[in-house]
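[09:14] KT: can someone run the structure on this one? pasting the chain below
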Amino acid sequence: MDRLEPGLLLAAMLTAVQGQSLSGYDRIVVLKARQRMASFFQAQVLGDMASISDLMNQIEADPEIAHDAAAAEIGAALRLTRRAADSDLALAIDLKERLPVVWEALAAGRIDLRRARVIVSGTSHLSEEAAREVVGRILEAAGRLTTGQLAALLRRVCVQADPDDAHTRYGEAVDRRRILADPSVDGTADLFGLDLPPDRVAAAMRRITDLARGLKTADETRTLDQIRADVFLDLLDGKHLARGGRRGTVDIQVDLTTLARLSEDPGELAGYGPIIADIARQVAENQPQAEWRWTLTHPDTGLVVDNGITRRRPTSRQRRHVEARNRNCVFPGCRMPAVDCDLDHRRPWAQGGPTKTGNLAPLCRHNHNTKHRCGWTYQVLPNGDYLWTSRLGHTYTTSGLPP
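[09:31] RB: done, structure tokens below
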């Protein structure tokens, strides 16, 4: 069942399944099989919507009237709001006409509707030719990535596909930067900063987090998120005059060829994702007194060969090595930067596990607890990847690197 493509045979087998009689392992197999069938049917529904649009275009000479007529038919038939009908129809047309290979992947159960939406949205600013080129580069990996990882990968590949367009869109977006305040249904309020420079946002978030951690004493009853929110408001209204904590810092990875202006490959901002080459260079130029860590990677595999540091800081050599080797939490699907993670002993210290880099891996606090409390284990593969085994016996492979 785990290898069957969606179709009549798989549907018949799933109909006969008695869930409560299955082992824990097989329940995951059934879950994945039903998701493939759901993706298959969702693709057919979207195909039906696109066919209704085709019919209306044959009936109506005006494309706008044809679209509205198709959306009205779909909305009435499926009891959708006008906005939902318009949105679903636009997605259907994009998948069937602009990105047919994505529709085919959805129909084959290789991706689900969530990932299809991410791909369509992430390439909407590109020409049809450029969008198809980008999709061709990421589609094989799409089913193995979370939607967050997939969106980050799309941003990187889109920048690589057309650096000039990415630079133009970045400048136009920053020109639209603004602050919004909205009331919530709970009587609270939300404060948003939109279209801000990502390097400054990353530095501000690191500064707020460092101040919050400094206030998280044994007697403090607030959660770290609550303290961060309070620090944020205190800083803005001038009340927070506490000293200490690190200055807002930026954790960025960028190719030397980009810094030397020999290429326009994007950089990688920890906790954010890809940034255009110009911003990566600006960040580097604005950090003349900062600590610089260098990492030598294999040109084909991307694995860390060696690393070092330009000046001494009170950071352990082992942590530097682990952070250089694994830029993110190594739990499946997690994108937490390694600098904000715990260092986990793969073989527990209590069981004689040594404190050596080969026995250490970055895990965010949540997934560190998941590993110990929920029965997950992992091992390091010869190529440097991590093979995780869940409590129910399923395996997942991750590199701990951004996609």
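[09:33] KT: thanks! The chain is about 50% helix and 15% strand.
[09:34] RB: yep, looked fine to me
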